[in-house]
Amino acid sequence: MHGLVLIIVGFCISWNAPAANNPIFAEIVPEKSRTSVYALDRSFESILSSFAPPAVGILAQHVYGYKPIQKGASESEEIATDRENALSLAKALYTAIGIPMALCCFIYSFLYFTYPKDRERAQMEAFIESEMRELLSDTMPEGGDHSQAQPFELEEPYIKDRTIIEVDYEDEVDLDPNKNDEKPILHASRHSL
């Protein structure tokens, strides 16, 4: 039974990164930051997993009562101590695996609430970025290298399409806050768009 559980857990535990983390990162992380986020995820997981063996040893020895076999103990005492030590190691392993797995499930459960909004935001940002690229590619000179375009060449089409808005103030307003307690009211009218 113990071997079957280990095989099932060992088979399923490797699914987290390829079946959950990587697809989520691919959808919500901007393309220019993906490699950094993947690397951060892998390193964060590796660093945390490196604390598991010492944690099992500390738990077994200080919490669950692991005791080394005494020198000169009889064979029956060695067997009894081995059984107690096996039980303390099993409890330490269960704690070192069970608590992080429960915490992982708890944290992943929040994705049901945050992931749809994050995905929509990321899709909207990607759409806006692609539209901006398309607009900029329409303004680039044809047949030339985009890197050779000067900043004033990129801004020139936008200068021609600018709209000037004139605002006339009907009354002069004194903006001195110390003069009186009333707040100034500005009246504006638009003449040309």
From TrEMBL:
Residues 176-185 have a biased composition (Basic and acidic residues). It is a multi-pass membrane protein. Keywords: Membrane, Signal, Transmembrane, Transmembrane helix, Transport. The chain crosses the membrane at residues 92-115. Residues 170-193 are annotated as: Disordered. It is found in: Membrane. InterPro entries: MFS_spinster-like, MFS_trans_sf. GO terms for cellular component: membrane. Its main location: membrane. The keyword Zinc does not apply. Residues 1-19 form the signal peptide. PANTHER family: MAJOR FACILITATOR SUPERFAMILY (MFS) PROFILE DOMAIN-CONTAINING PROTEIN, SPINSTER. This is Major facilitator superfamily (MFS) profile domain-containing protein. It comes from Gossypium harknessii. The lineage of its organism: Eukaryota, Viridiplantae, Streptophyta, Embryophyta, Tracheophyta.
